[in-house]
Amino acid sequence: MRFVCRCGNMLTNQLDPNDTEYYVYSDREWSEFEKKGWIYFLDVPYPQYDVWRCEKCDRIYLFKENKVVKVYKPEE
Fold first, then answer.
1. Are 61 and 4 in contact (CB under 8 A)?
2. Distance CA 27, CA 54 (A)
3. For the chain, first and last CA: distance in Å?
4. CB neighbours (10 Å) of residue 23?
5. Cα 37 from chain centroid?
6. How far apart are CA 6 and CA 35, in angstroms?
7. For a 10 Å CB count at each end of the chain, is N or C smaller?
8. Residue 41: its pLDDT value, please?
9. Looking at beta carbons, which pairs linking 55-58 to residues 24 or more positions away fall under 8 Å?
10. Mean pLDDT throughout 7-18?
11. How many CB atoms lie within 10 A of CB 5?
12. Where are the domains of the chain?
């Protein structure tokens, strides 16, 4: 997928590995994985949100079903 950040930088997750896409889980979600005994990375489901970081301005984008649902901009 490709996405243009508000600063104009082109973000993409087409390369693997990349420095754009992050995998983020809540502590509660991770505890559930541990309870189920999931330790092999292929057994862990994808997170609820896709999280991308712009390398140029450090904005953080949360995507759900390929749509931006939240944007965070650093204060400094």
1. no
2. 24
3. 28
4. 11
5. 24
6. 40
7. C
8. 60
9. 55/9, 55/19, 55/20, 56/5, 56/7, 56/8, 56/9, 57/5, 57/6, 57/7, 57/9
10. 92
11. 19
12. 2-72
